[in-house]
Amino acid sequence: MDDLQRVLGYVDAADDDGEPAVEVAPEIYEMSFWTPEFCGALVRAAEAVGFTPDPDDPVPGHEVSLATISPALFQRVEIDIGRRVWPRLQEQWPLIEYRGLRDAFVIRYRVGEQESLRLHQDVAQVSATVRLNDDYDGAELAFPRQGYDNGDLPVGRLIAWPSLVTHPHEALPLRSGTKYGLTIWCHIPDDLDQY
Ligand SMILES: O=C(O)CCC(=O)C(=O)O
Ligand SMILES: [Fe+2]
């Protein structure tokens, strides 16, 4: 199968071990999500489209949204997260409510280009990241308060955390190679009269 079929059709993307999420550090949950083959195809698609830093982004990175690669892909990922990821997170956080994705983008770290990302928190309900490759050194996604980094996370697996207040995180300096990760931000409910 070629990359085009795989990425645009979302073919052979899901890797589902059927296991519940595992708490790898305080309120950080890991689970299966994508096949390594799909991760590789998505990285090649992101490279074909190109990475552009947004000058208005307060935490600028070299990123490309899945919606820029393909609106249909963005929609499939949004539905897939609602079907496969959210129920596993609700076992841990029963009151969260899925309102779709604020964004999902591939971020790239390259020596001589973007080599780290400063400590920040995300403005979202729940944040997640998927490891897309592992042929690089450094650039671990680190949570200083939780004493956790994703250096040992296998390609295709996802970790999720509460976006604000308790889980500031940073990408440590890259030492060699190119890192790709998928960042996922889930919408905050805005129907405040429900609460
Ligand atoms: O995966 C990473 O390197 C971190 C990305 C991140 O925290 C973000 O895009 O908000
Ligand atoms: Fe972040």
From TrEMBL:
Q: Which UniProt keywords apply?
A: Dioxygenase, Iron, Metal-binding, Oxidoreductase, Vitamin C
User: Which positions fall inside the Fe2OG dioxygenase domain?
Assistant: 100-188
Needed cofactors: L-ascorbate
According to UniProt, the name of this protein is 2-oxoglutarate-Fe(II)-dependent oxygenase superfamily protein
Q: What InterPro entries does this protein map onto?
A: Oxoglu/Fe-dep_dioxygenase_dom, Pro_4_hyd_alph, Pro_4_hyd_alph_FE2OG_OXY
Named from the GO MF annotations, one term is: L-ascorbic acid binding
